[in-house]
Amino acid sequence: MTDTRASPLSPLKAAIIQVTPFEQNCTLVWDEATKVGAVIDPGGDLDRIEKAIADTGMTVEKILLTHGHIDHAGGAAELRDKLGVKIEGPHQADSILLDNLEKQGEAYGIDGVRNVTPDRWLDDGDTVTLAGHTFEIFHCPGHSPGSVVFFDRDQRFALVGDVLFRGSIGRTDFPYGDHDALISAIKTKLFPLGDDVAFICGHGPPGRFGPERETNPFLV
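RE: above sequence
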């Protein structure tokens, strides 16, 4: 008798490339079996990102943006043109940031930055597919108005951008920041997903929600 049940998806793999003077974690995520994946937050240093893509042997299906700050989105327009793929995310509330990336570049002395408009804005409750895997979208404003978190429920894995760090949270003293909104989003949207959820953030080392819920000084 033939078993017609769907085979479970192969695990996702991830690699982090630190880019820009801000040491931002540009992340590659791909399906181990198909080698199809995405680039998350290509803030700049595209030569390093392209080398990492080649080293993994992955095929880039799309670019995902967690939010619109220059260190996360500054290289997205150029990489989209080079790879011929689409950009998904962040929430449209970050359009004011993405429309002014070139000005951000001038202010920080970073060359080669281009304004960018995603091919798809994301909102709370949306989903993004990647190599057959499904990521749920959580709109988590505070660090920026349009920050989003990508959550793979099956793999117990989240891409949180600058919403949450290991032992810290995203800065809220930037224009359009909102400390109370950020704390609320983390506590009401992310932590209920489970203490076992592993996350990759926009700066610094990965972590899990449980230790952050218990020991993060901004959230205890």
